[in-house]
Amino acid sequence: MTAVPAIPAATVVLLRDGQRGLETLMLRRNANLAFAGGMWVWPGGRLDPDDYPGGEPDDDPAVLQDSARRAAVREAREEADLAVDPDSLVWFSHWTPPPISPKRFATWFFAAPAPAGAVHIDGGEIHGHAWMTPAEAMARRNALELALSPPTWITLEHLAVFDSTDQALGALAARSPEWFATRFATLEGGAVALYDGDAGYEDEDPDRPGARHRLWMVGDTWRYERSSGPVSAEDSEGSEGS
Fold first, then answer.
1. Residue 182 predicted with pLDDT over 80
2. pTM
3. Most buried of 37, 63, 131, 155, CB within 10 angstroms?
């Protein structure tokens, strides 16, 4: 099967310090949308021509990253009516879906402090919003109260160890962005998403013994497993990866 080309896209994870600790703005997509309908996501979308300096797509990595930053700021404005400072964006990961996906977006993930102002959604593409702690969002997914994608879950897992916006952004900025290229394997009762570093990644064999870097999606409960352990506020400072 020929892989569907991956469309460049960008997402911005907006953070704030709430009474319950670190919170992030989640948006609920219209359930009738063909792509990720009903999912809870962060502001984001494909790169538009106007996001590129010359008004035309450009495959140069540096141009793509700068264009992704502009797209992230634009999407926050369009989907949440929030004016994000471009200089506040911290690029911390990049995600590419497996080749078998019917629609693929190669997505830059940025984090930023939430700007002042109320969130307004259009009721079209976005049908709801809520500020949640990472732990709350994950617990609600496992209670089947909301739907998340694997990149969203794993990002929430990474954020859950931080107590404040400054701590999270400082730790994310101190390490190199991590690249995720997802591969899936089916299991009885569900599936497992495999990532680089997992012993079964290359041949998509979840039973291969060895190191683990995967998201278990079996039954109702999702669970992230990584041999190197989860990201922490202490060990992420100055590290080269999560």
1. yes
2. 0.89
3. 155
